[in-house]
Amino acid sequence: MRWLELTRSTRPAQLLCGYALAGALAAAELAILALALDPKVNDDYRAYYIDKTTTCLNRDAVGRYTPGRTVSFRSNGAREAMPMMVCGWSGPVADGTHSLGETSRLRLAMPPLRDGLLATLEMNAVIRPPQLSQRIVISANGTEVHRVTLSGAAPTTVSFVIPQAVLAGNDRLEMAFDYPDGIAQSPAASNIYNRAIKLTSFRLDRL
Amino acid sequence: MPSGRVEADLALENAARAKSGIRLMVITVAGVPLLFLLSGLAIRYAAFASVSADPSLAAYARAFCKWDCTWYVDISEQGYERFPIPGHTNIGRWGFFPLYPMLVAGIRSVFPFPTLLIATVASPACAYASCLVAWPLMERNMRAYALYCAFLMSGPFSFYFAAFLTEPLFVLLTSCLFLALKRSNYLAAGISCALLSATRPVGVLAVFATVIRMFEDHRARGGSVIGFPRWLLGRPDLLVAILISPAGLFAYILYLTVTVGDGFAFVHVQRAFGRVAGDPLLFLWDGLSYHPMSSWLPTAPQWSALTAIAGLGLSVMLAVRRQYGAALFCAIAITLPLTSNLASMVRYVVGLAPLSMLAAVLLSASKPTFAAALIFFLATCYFMTVAWLGGYLALA
């Protein structure tokens, strides 16, 4: 029997078949929609893609690092720097590693430490007049450890202490850089492309 | 000679003439797009040869694989990623719909050739089939048909229909859908729409054209506006046609729900591409205001904005010509991506078959405009192909 004969038929049984098919399609689509409206994803996925509360999608990157070594974040240090970069970075290129978005993160696997660390970072602010400075909030393992304002485009060395308390019990050091003054590429551009700093070198020393 | 025999002979002669006329028509309808397919191939190859040191077919196929093409190659060969995405990236392939890469993968499973080579054959084949389907849609207007074929196969944007992009299949399915609607074959329209909805995100919007055609059918039979929902509910065949229309989209949503955990991953991943929802008018204005620094030629954003405006203008013309379904489909298919930015706008507009068909009909209204348009299409095919091969942003 042809389809049209079946569905256009006024015979109740065949009409019923047509409605049953339509009902089954509607039910299947509603069920799929209900499933899709309740995504089963982890917190990182939700924060970046759905809630858009971060521009930095957490990844399982971990770089190996021994205190006392200076890591270049220019293109010549890519091999060592790249594994440390979790998210929020672009590069490295010749003038450093550019921050992307509102937050950048580094993650390092560290040997056990009895004391704190002295961090020494060289970085430049990305400026676009009239904005001539960038505020940076630096956290270690979720605890804020330093705030700095970089003015002008010249490289600046930033030093601060990471207390032993934030390192205790962790075999990893997770550093987050938040940029309250990140510069949008254009008024309509996504904040994942905001620019704030260029990181050129990174060093940690035992206290 | 007896008069009865003369009449019989004349009738036979007329039948034979009609038969040969039909044969000639079939040959012409099939031959015109074939001719432009070959000329397009020759022009695009000449453009490729002018910029490439390697003249091989493999190099040709690789050279045309620009922008989104690489995503489709990856989907065809590796499928979609789960989360976390391997390779420490935040850009999953989920934003690219599966039907065309699946089709190419299916062909590859039968013919063991490289993906790009298969797509290099499959894309023009889809475009050729689109031309054939367009013949009855263009009211058998041979001049308009020839111009439409020239546009798709040898025109300035013919590289879209020669590369591994979704446009060739999208145009074919759109043409099938509107042909089915023209013949009031709603089930065929529904199935075409279901396939469209698995080809590109805006494909599902064609369901509005189906509903509008149903409404027109209802009105033509003397039905009232208020009585339309009741009439629709009394026709399970029409309900099935409507409900099957988004089936491709829902199948993909289900797949993403099962694999990624997020059925709307194809929407959410747009964040990683930097797409932000905004005012389409603002995006248009931004694009138009992006003036060239040194050249007199418009910038890529200006081309994109102008193309969007031209597409919307043609959509209005479709509405003026009482092709309400096609007009609505095209207008939404342009406006929806415009709510994020102007990216790929030229490709999106070129991939809307009702607009290209209308343009072909308008340009073929007189012989001089037809000839001028034809020459323009063939001449610009070369230069636009060179621009595509050079990665010109407006064509992305």
TrEMBL record, chain A:
Domain of life: Bacteria
Protein name, per record: Uncharacterized protein
Species whose genome carries this gene: Mesorhizobium dulcispinae
TrEMBL record, chain B:
Signal peptide coordinates: none
Keywords attached to this entry: Membrane, Transmembrane, Transmembrane helix
Transmembrane feature ranges: 24-47, 116-138, 145-166, 186-212, 238-258, 300-320, 327-350, 370-395
Superkingdom of the source species: Bacteria
Keyword field contains Membrane: yes
Protein name listed in UniProt: Glycosyltransferase RgtA/B/C/D-like domain-containing protein
Organism in which the protein naturally occurs: Mesorhizobium dulcispinae
Species classification: Bacteria, Pseudomonadati, Pseudomonadota, Alphaproteobacteria, Hyphomicrobiales
